[in-house]
Amino acid sequence: MWARHVELALGLWLLAGPLVFEHATIGLWIHDVAAGALVAAIALASQRRPRGMLHLLALPIAAWLVAAGWWSTWQAGGSSPPIFQNRIVVGLLLAMFAIVPNHASRPPEALDSRERGRTP
Amino acid sequence: MAELGRAVDVDVTAPPWSWNPSAWRHRIPICLLAGVAFGIAGYLALYQWRIVDSVWDPVFGAQSMQVLDSQVSHTMRRWLGVPDAVLGAIAYLGDAIYCLAGSTRRWQYRPWMVLLFGLDVIPLGIVSAVLVGLQGMVVGAWCFLCLVTAAISLILVVLAYDEVWSCLSFLGRVWRRSRSARVVWHVFWGGPHPVSDAVALAAR
Lengths: 120, 204
Prior knowledge:
The complex is a heterodimer of chains A (120) and B (204). With 120 residues, chain A is mainly α.
């Protein structure tokens, strides 16, 4: 479950991006705020449903962030402003953590039996 | 599913070894080393971002900065979008994260995670170590901290290979027993299956 906490922090960092990197256009603001809100929402929802795999929804967002950062860098002729580098780094980190299951240390069998025990 | 519904012993030896390569006493050193390498690569990235003004190098002095500011490094930065040391730092962080995740029987219960960890540590580690080793020939200068991270990469390969091998060996036994790609696929993703428990602790 610790991976979900890190994802929440990454989402909040994306939300703070426009203030940290002083985005120049409204489009850049909307992009990072929307991505950050989605990442944070997925992390919170995953914590409420620990057996689900909602956290994998963060993977396409991570891929998008990396692709958007790289694309913007190519368009800028290889010079990469901090805002685009931030997207690439956050995207890679998000992908890394989003793969980790909620209860990675619990054997699958034990998880099954515990959940069955809770069933009324 | 022989062990379904009762406590599972997660500290067992993993054939073909006589020890458990997923035990914390084997994994913690890997996590610590990867953490050190992450710190070093992160420090080098801070220099490439110019958040720090210089790089500490007790052996080669200013050569470190020549390496980090070389044409090769700038070319890689244009391709990657971020300084190469940043990607190195993320890869080492991945080593530590995937080393920490999973139980002490993850070679059986989460093979995909062990193999992902192995992919991050072994091929990436060897390639990065070779690239750092070539810097003297390509750039004509050496970077002490880069060489330290390359050495750590190779040590990580040595420390990690036994767990990866026990996992591959386990999946091989599942295949030989079941002759079913569907069963192997199911077990690979950590699904409970009678064949998994039946062959897990069998040496052959």
